[in-house]
Amino acid sequence: MPLNVTVVGTGYVGLVTGVCLAHSGHNVTCVDIEPAKVEMLRAGRSTIYEPGIEELLKEGLKNGNLRFETPEAGWNPLIGDVTFVAVGTPMASNGAADLSAVHAVVEDLAEAADRPFLMVMKSTVPMGTGETLCQRHLSKSGVSIGYVSNPEFLREGKALEDWYHTDRIVLGSANSADLTTMKSLYADIDAAIVETDIASAETIKYASNAFLSTKISFINEIANVCDLVGADIDSVAKGIGLDKRIGTEFLKAGIGYGGSCFPKDTRALDFISTLHGYDFTLLKAVIDVNNRQYQLPAVHLMDALGDLNDCRIAVLGLAFKPDTDDVRESPALGIVPLLVGAGARVAIYDPIAADTPLGGAERTTTIWEALEGACAAVVVTEWAEVVNLDWSRAADLMLDDAIVFDGRNCLDPRTVQAAGMRYMAVGRAGAHRSEA
Ligand code: UDX
Distance between CA atoms of 310 and 375, rounded to whole angstroms? Predict the structure, then answer.
């Protein structure tokens, strides 16, 4: 049965939630405080880069299941029977999640409401936040407001696929009628449902991202050891991943994880643990390892070349992963300043990533411009264009005996070497030792 749904916040999570629920047949109102965003979305243009989202957006606008509003005329008419909160929880300077937007929206909704509704928290909030919001805001409302914690597990670039084919839906609530409403909202999604209390649902979100980050930092440590002992990380990852208890996913070694979630959520979980008097030693190590990985290109290029002064280096990729324009916490943001600081002339190429001020580095419009005259290329993002590059043509443009540092272990070393270049990577059979 179609429900009247409101989604507050049309950022990444909110917009995906809104268009997908409209596509499922619900009657959805998305609300954002930025009029320019609302105008753009009303015109059928997506404010985020996400494959397939614009089609669903246009479909929802056309069939009338989806509309966009600002709260200028007051919150009350905008509140749906199910109202999602999907506003940002950016990282504060101390590593904690900044909850000011969440508190402001929840308070506004609780004050404005003149009839009962169900509030659903999609924003990633620290454990205990749901309880605090209920006590501080919802309990003071003149009407009864239910509360469900319903964290998201969407990957950028694959958000629509993840929405409809998720491994699980997590619902944290103490109220069985609210859980029933949520299950009817997601009736068309075939996934395991984890019904739990609010604090556990909040913890599941942080624990999931912390565990995935741990897998990445673990395989990166193993890769670093592989380099020292002359082993091959690809074989090692396959060999351990085929044990079903471990699993093959998230065992790709490289220059570390980035993006809007893993760095923020691992630091926030460490912060929350510390607040509760717990020293999360393992998580701290995961974060430390990640902060070390992005330094590898500069360290190994310096080892191999002796000096990077005035050496032109092509940085291939700026986005934190392919198929997104998102540069938040991308390893490139650490790599480029290190190379520039070492005196290199850095030329960055990325097919779509947002322009980011990176002092002293040049941004090129084609990959060939970046490679022209370069003594080294660093692969930061495994874009298809980079993976399938004509490396012979690249070698012709670059200086003799140039180095390709494959920070994502995404190239075939033989192709690069056959083009006459030196190949370096992360844990791939000691490639940089033998070539140095
Ligand atoms: C992640 C989670 O996957 C998702 O469930 C959560 O809701 C949000 O955070 P996302 O940030 O879109 O999604 O990216 P993801 O594809 O998980 O990759 C994150 C980072 O880890 C990227 O920088 C990627 O390059 C890196 N990574 C991933 C590795 O270095 N090795 C791997 O094996 C996998």
Answer: 10
Return the amino acid letter for 150.
N
Contact partners, residue 364, CB within 8 Å, separation at least 6: 347, 348, 349, 370
Predicted pLDDT at 357: 79
Q: Counting Cβ atoms within 10 Å, is residue 93 exposed (0-12), middle (13-18) or buried (19+)?
A: exposed
Q: Which of 259, 224, 421, 231 is nearest to 353 (CA)?
A: 259
Tokens encoding 241:
């991943």
**Residues 331/320, Cβ–Cβ less than 8 Å:** yes
pLDDT over 90 (residue 435): no
**Residue 436 clears pLDDT 80, i.e. is over it:** no
Q: What is the rounded average pLDDT of the residues 61-85?
A: 96
Overall average pLDDT of the 145-158 stretch: 96
DSSP 8-state secondary structure symbol assigned to residue 171: E
For 204, other C-beta atoms within 10 Å of its C-beta total 19
CA 225 to chain centre: 27
Summarize pLDDT for 316-347 with one digit per residue, the tens: 999 999 988 899 999 999 999 999 999 999 99
Q: Are 197 and 246 in contact (CB under 8 A)?
A: no
Residues for the chain: how many in total? 436
pTM of the entire predicted model: 0.94
pLDDT tens-digit map of 120-133: 999 999 999 999 99
* 46 has pLDDT over 90: yes
Query: What average pLDDT does the segment 109-120 reach?
Result: 96
Task: Tell which atom from ligand 1 comes closest to the C-alpha of 155.
Answer: 12
- Average pLDDT, stretch 184-202? 97
Residues 427 and 405: beta-carbon distance below 8 Å: no
C-alpha distances (whole Å) from 27 to each of 21, 35, 66, 73, 409 are 8, 21, 6, 20, 45
- Does the beta carbon of 407 lie inside 6 Å of ligand 1? no
Residue identifier of the C-alpha nearest atom 31 of ligand 1 = 252
Q: Is the distance from the beta carbon of residue 155 to the nearest atom of ligand 1 less than 6 Å? A: yes
155 Cα to the center of ligand 1, angstroms: 7
DSSP H stretches of helix in 230-295: 233-241, 262-275, 281-293
- From the list 20, 134, 226, 261, the catalytic residue is 261
Other beta carbons within 10 Å of 59? 15
Domains of the chain and any CATH numbers: 4-196 (3.40.50.720), 205-291 (1.10.1040.10), 294-424 (3.40.50.720)
